[in-house]
Amino acid sequence: MTREGYIFPLPFLIISAFFMFLFSRHIDITFAYVATVFFFLGMAVMLFFRDPDRKIPEGENLILSPADGRVIKIEEINGYPALSIFLSIFDVHVNRAPVSGTVKYFKYHPGKFHSAFKDKAEKENQKNEIEIETSAGIVKMFQVAGSIARRTTFHHKIGDNLKAGQRIGLIRFGSRVDLVLPVGSKIDTRLRQRVKGGKTVLGMLP
What we know:
This protein is α+β, with helices and mostly antiparallel strands. The chain has 2 domains: 3-48; 62-204, Glucose Permease (Domain IIA), CATH 2.70.70. It has 3 helices and 14 strands. It has helices at residues 10-26, 29-48, 121-124, and strands at 62-64, 69-77, 80-87, 94-96, 101-109, 127-134, 137-145, 152-154, 161-162, 167-171, 175-180, 186-187, 194-195, 201-204. Strands 9-5-6-7-11-3-2-13 form an 8-stranded antiparallel β-sheet, with no helix packed on it. A 3-stranded antiparallel β-sheet has the order 1-14-12, with no helix packed on it. A 3-stranded antiparallel β-sheet has the order 4-10-8, with no helix packed on it. A hairpin with a 2-residue loop joins β6 and β7 (137-145). α1 (10-26) runs antiparallel to α2. The longest helix is centred in the N-terminal third of the chain and has 20 residues, at 29-48. The two termini are 35 Å apart. The mean pLDDT is 87.
């Protein structure tokens, strides 16, 4: 579980414990019901922040999925291959480096909170823009907030070296991740495909 996962469930569990205390004192079944509801809400939040270990594929120039979710777009942007992955609230939300390289650029863009699967989310939503320099060129990665997600985090700074598949950040509660790849990159995935961060191979750099 991520570090955030130990903080956010705590209020639900404290409220649950409080109502269980009231139940033990007054034996009112309503208190037991409320305690149960808040307990399961806390468990659901803990599940959202899960952070499973992954066996990272080995190979030169692999492009790995930066997130768990479903591929919702494959396109070219001014000749650059690009794709988008939508994360539902049930997916693991830890983001991973899609390629090995060096962080050359980072910028936070304030914005709106449209549903992450809508086209306008790409341009108008709050997001982090990250550029990773590789021997084949620059890989751009966007952590895009959604209608429920209100926070994107990137745990590295310019100059840091990344290894494909390593944990690099988190998006809270439903969102999307966009990749823009160097010209000549081969995307070997399909629309609607389910992918796993750091595990699914999306294609190859040129």
